[in-house]
Amino acid sequence: MKGRIIAIEGVDGSGKETQSKRLLTELKGIYPLVERKSFPDYGSRSSALVRMYLEGDFGINPMDVDAYQASTFFALDRFASYRTQWIKTYEEGGIIIMDRYTTANMVHQAGKIGDIKERDRFLKWVSEFEFSLLGLPQPDITFFLSIPEEVRKKLVSGRKNKITGDDTRDIHEGSEDHIKNAEDAGLYVARKFGWKIIECADEKGMKSIDEIGDIILQTVKENFGV
Q: Where would you tag: which of 13, 64, 96, 182 has the fewest CB atoms within 10 A of its CB?
């Protein structure tokens, strides 16, 4: 029995880490086999090219590395994680909660491509490369956490760099154009592939962690027949 994968996507500051950890806690009381993974896997050697890219070794502008090239770095990091860390849990029928997954390439890298026909061609390539060629399992449910730009800026202010641990920004975080394009592309992709879009803020401001988390949990239960 194959397992199931829940992917949580969104731009930086949207709450992916918080919600994936909350969902892990909730599902542990329901399912015997549940794991959480976060990508990029900075603790693994497989993320070396990702780190080089995000630290600016190939260019300080995200557009210096095209969508196909950058996607390959992130995809191979996921392949290594799958084959060395969670393949057993997945093949035994477990649930893997992803704080970013293959779907992240569809968000961040698709944002580099403005032409819709070219973007769709890229999205088709990503699916074939990661799911067919590399053999990564497809997600059963994907959530896209959407937040207004002004809210996002407040949430990420003062956050530490996940690679260096200091106050510097990687080339994605440091480019407002990249983040805006990724948010726009994420909404496009979410609608195209039927992801669950969660508006994390309303006219009153940011919704609570529990309010957003309850939507995620209820959707999972409905889809998994609980």
A: 64
